Amino acid sequence: MEAVRTNELGLRRDEWLERMKLFGLGSPAILLILVILVIPVGWLFYVSFIGADGTFSLENYERMLKRKSYARIFQTTFEVSFLTTGLCILIGYPLAYFIAGLPNRIANLCLITVLLPFWTSLLVRTYAWLVLLQKRGLVNEWAISLGLWDEPIKIVHNMTGTLIGMVHIMLPFLILPVYGAMKAIDRDLMKAASNLGASPRRAFWTVFFPLTLPGLFAGSLMVFILCLGFFVTPAVLGGGKVIMVSMKIVSNIELFVNWGAASALGVVLLVSTMVILWIASRFLNLEKMTGGGH
Amino acid sequence: MLRWFQSPATETQITHGQRLWLYVIAVITMVLLVTPTLIVVPMSFSDSQYLEFPPETWSTRWYDHYFGSPEWMLATRTSFKAAFLTMLVATPIGVLAAYGLHCSKIRFVRAAFVLMITPMMVPVVLVAIGAFYAYVQLQILYTITGLVLAHTVLALPLVVIVTGSALKSFDMSQEEAARSLGAPRWKAFLTVTLPQIRFAVVTSALLSFLTSFDEVVVAMFVSGGDNPTLTRNMFNALRDQIDPTIASISTIMILVTTGMMVLAQLFGQQKKSTKPSE
User: Fold this and answer.
1) Is the peptide bond preceding residue A172 cis, with omega within 30 degrees of 0?
2) CATH of A68-293, one of 3.30.310.50, 1.10.10.10, 3.40.50.1220, 1.10.3720.10
3) Which residues of A touch B88 (CB under 8 A)?
4) B123 contacts in A (CB within 8 Å)?
5) B13 and A200 in contact by Cβ < 8 A?
6) Are A164 and A155 in contact (CB under 8 A)?
7) Which keywords describe this protein according to UniProt (chain B) (predicted)?
8) ipTM score of the complex?
């Protein structure tokens, strides 16, 4: 009896050791992320609470509250993020719906049009829009020859240009999850709905659309979060007129070498991202639970 | 044709004619998704400073300028070197981590997984200035080592997610069978598990390469001096003016990315076609 027990204990210890060893396989990755990401970002947290005189102070955060320029930066950031997400939904949802209804072979071809820009470097796509939208660019040239407007107008180095570029870059992030949700829907449900007398519109809005909501939600969240921290596209296409949080962080360091101010902005950006993700994850889990309960 | 308009398009019997608007919007969107990127390719062969389309006179002067410039060549070499090394570092580390987390079912696994995908959730600007600060302390600023380490951190979440999901759909009892027949764990992994998740591993490797190759913001801060990346130089050039040389570089970058993705597809298809004979 005693022997069995020690044997069992030994086995359990072996199992635990084995599991720890396996977990240890992740240690190079964990170590790297700690050294390159977590510790430096933790240091930024610390620096954000250090004032110009080197002691603990909240001045970096107070500055954000007091100065109007900071309020405007946050306003612009949220404005750009909301508008981009909204436009992506308006443009992306119909396209996802269209592709989801096609036979597989053609759908795969159409998906390439979504994936091709997804693969292409962000900088290349931003540059392409810069070239197309400039005063002597193709868009102005074609619009004038079509008679849409008479003089070359300014569509880049401002909000319009930024939004065009951002929507183009974010669209695949919205379309792919929505498409995934749509493909998972049992189309017989739609048949049943119309069999029971629902008009096509009613069947869509009461049966199909609610089932795509988790995908739509995940995609929109992704787009919104990415937009909040976006740098390259607004920096190039905004022409200095659209200043988002990440751009202010960069200029605080590159131009003013003000780590305190940059860190405080970074902390606010990071915390708002995390809060949104946290709220969303609760909401998403709920969604899954209610979906699983049916 | 008319009959097609009146024929039902979906299960709800809505006709093609009634939802013609959807087709129009979808086609316009698809065109808008693809053309802006692709139009750069013919434009890069334009002789004009203003990159006309279609080019009135064709020339390779922007390519000559690119290949003749020592700065651009240095940046190109740095980018390829960094991307290649990132792939070599991130793939094994990430695959090991994904495998370890998948098999070890201790309590910290969830926390470790969250930690491994944080680089995806933290705004990249923060990663950049954090790494910049750390590298000044570690004295590896403007080195390939520093650049590769930072890019590896950015690539790790992709490797862990892609490989991890492949492991989830892999039947681990195959590996257990190999081990009960006497193979040590590492051998069972290399000869049984790895060959079956190889498509995910190759995809991870290609994604790591592209993550580094296309990355701008971190490279802006931690690359420079003797090791500036292509994207860093491109971004700086874009801030000043529209340099047509960028069009030729963009074309080359599109070629590299598309090449990578075609490779991934070919590898995937090979897997599918060989499967029945296996």
Assistant:
1) no
2) 1.10.3720.10
3) none
4) 228-229, 246, 266, 269-270, 273
5) yes
6) yes
7) Cell inner membrane, Cell membrane, Membrane, Transmembrane, Transmembrane helix, Transport
8) 0.88
